Amino acid sequence: MAEAEHSEILVIGAGIIGVTAALALQSEGHKVRLLDRAGVAAGTSVGNAGAFAYADVEPLATPGIMRKAPKWLLDPLGPLSLRPGYALQLTPWLLKFWRASRKDRYAAAVKAQSELMHLAQEAQERLITAVSGEPLMRREGQMQLYEGAASYKASLTSWELRRRHGVKFELLESPEAIAEIQPGVARRFTHAGYTPEWMNTVDPALWTRHVADAFVARGGSIEITEIRALRPLEQGVEVETASSTLRAAKVVLAAGAWSRSLARSLGDRIPLDTERGYNTTFSTASFDLRTHLTFSDHGFVVTRIGEGLRVGGAVELGGLDLPPNFKRAEILVQKTAKFLSGFEPTGGKQWMGFRPSMPDSLPVISASPKSRDVIYAFGHGHLGLTQSAGTAQLVAALCAGRAPGIDLAPFRADRF
């Protein structure tokens, strides 16, 4: 590996956050090199649902959630579960999650998330134009489904929250209204909320590679190497890799769930953990899916990927090292067969990924407290694709030392 130039910016992590940040920095005239331990879209960016979920402004840590959490966490196949072998290790994170669910902190998180969403949506549209990416987009909306009036009524506060933050939607109050937009949904789903401006990519891995290709075509370089440690210098940053030691003017750390250990090598102890998500991808579609479907009471989605379908979701708190529990993926497919008329659960490919998550559901977008030359961009949970273009814009502003456009205090690395 060639020695980095002292004026160069190194971006660590070639998922959607890293490649989009690298392109944004390059567009401002910086020489940028992208480093990843496995390659472009080799982690979570290859297997997510492909949704730009700008309507999702509510964090996981909502007021009162801790009264429900014990029941959820103890169900190994439920929408939110905690692996027993990881419980002790996760306890500090759960305590911070509980504090984040307090009403005042929750309200502040919603405000911050909404501001980031608006920024990200505008930035994404500019990015699509800049890289001629419209053929890789699907603008088909999203339907959030509820079983029965009680479940629907319980959701209305979240829809009102979306309304206050500028999200456009339509509430559907009968199976017939649902069928007008998406035929074939079981009549047990009596109500829904439809967000017509919701957008998906045809394939998240394809989109990530498309952005990376644009970065390379404009003179950027991508190298596969294991990053072992970061060390602050009086000016710049030293990066220890498996094969050499590099020096750069700045480093952007966007390594997703693997960012915690690298931040710790600088001396920053950040409460980053993982929401392990499961899915099954079917290469051909046995069901005529016309919009992204979210089964709210069951914690999973069904979405179009390429010419096929992807069934995935749930949250499993289990860290990076425990083996996958693919029964979770099987349960979601079994439910889909019951919920969608004509869906055939054959020939699917299972996958598990690691969503890098902070206790308050807000990412870290800030300089390291230990070095102004290290910019953190990780912890987006299930919203990495959604917030990637906005995060890239903020990273570029931080590297240039200019005003970012939104208040970044809620996203500070040292907020806990």
UniProtKB/TrEMBL annotation:
Q: Which SUPFAM superfamilies match?
A: FAD-linked reductases, C-terminal domain (SSF54373), FAD/NAD(P)-binding domain (SSF51905)
Q: Where is the FAD dependent oxidoreductase domain?
A: 9-398
Assigned GO CC terms: cytoplasm
The record's annotation in PANTHER family points to: GLYCINE OXIDASE (PTHR13847:SF289), SARCOSINE DEHYDROGENASE-RELATED (PTHR13847)
Write down the InterPro entries for this protein, in alphabetical order. FAD-dep_OxRdtase (IPR006076), FAD/NAD-bd_sf (IPR036188)
Q: What is the lineage of its organism?
A: Bacteria, Pseudomonadati, Pseudomonadota, Alphaproteobacteria, Rhodobacterales
Top-level division of the source organism's lineage: Bacteria
Question: Which of UniProt's keywords are assigned here?
Answer: Oxidoreductase
Q: What's the protein name?
A: Amino acid dehydrogenase
Report the source organism.
Alloyangia mangrovi
* A Pfam entry, by short name: DAO
Query: What GO molecular-function term can you cite, just one?
Result: oxidoreductase activity
